[in-house]
């Protein structure tokens, strides 16, 4: 492959023009200061202009707006490109060693990873990076782009967004369930960010094993704890929150949400489960381990939201598939497949007074803000 360069100095070189330098039967995907990406024969290739301090010759991949996630193994790299799906990267003419990337990540981020502590999570640039070391020599890095959290009205219709926020403020215990990468944390962040922005006097405590959630404005306190139950207890005892957010729970952590639930504090978390049925069954089984008898999970679970992920040749689509509300004995759908199901059930589920005031007044505030934001965003999109 013949490539023309204009040298700015000894360390930097720029491709001119890159369109003329890639094979004729290839498609240029992106060009940025660190390099260019193109696809040929269903394989992604990188032409590096300049090495990144951590990613080395892969810098162009991680500087691209088109790339959403990447898996780096010893002999294989796979990336997810927006509107194109997952595609393998050609390693031809690239000097890539996973251990070198991990070493540079450790040096730049300070993440604690060793064979004694073989897993770690770091942030570099606009990427969240999970690192895994194996004693057998199997190293890998999984990078996920940290995206700007969209307004909740870009995830759910404005009217449903308002109803969901009202239900949370009854108060309710809310589980957002779905498979990995289905948008659970994005929805959680959008909900919490909206509440923090509209009601800045609410003290919102966030408990996580690793700090991932970050919010601007509002009144937020963070507790980072490997033991979720201990983090929740600390928050309840010393932080005295008005709303509790647990970034993610495993099944065995569910019982730790009982204390804030009994105290009447709105509580939100995410949970890995492919379906609502599987989530309820798993959480119910876990609850029986900690409580005597046969506890009814619906007594402690008020709302369950299910997110979905579709992985096709055209890309990855994430969306809210369903919202269910518990009546104490069962769960009933209020939103399915993009459509409201039972407005009467919704209205019946809302009390006259919420955790933060009169239901009608809060609803008017939410409608005024969310609908206006939704309309403004649509107008801006058309102008753009």
TrEMBL record:
SUPFAM superfamilies: P-loop containing nucleoside triphosphate hydrolases (SSF52540). One of its GO terms (molecular function) is ATP hydrolysis activity. Residues 172-285 form the Bacterial type II secretion system protein E domain. InterPro entries: P-loop_NTPase, T2SS/T4SS_dom, T4SS_GSP_E_ATPase. Belongs to the GSP E family. This is Bacterial type II secretion system protein E domain-containing protein. It comes from Thermofilum adornatum.
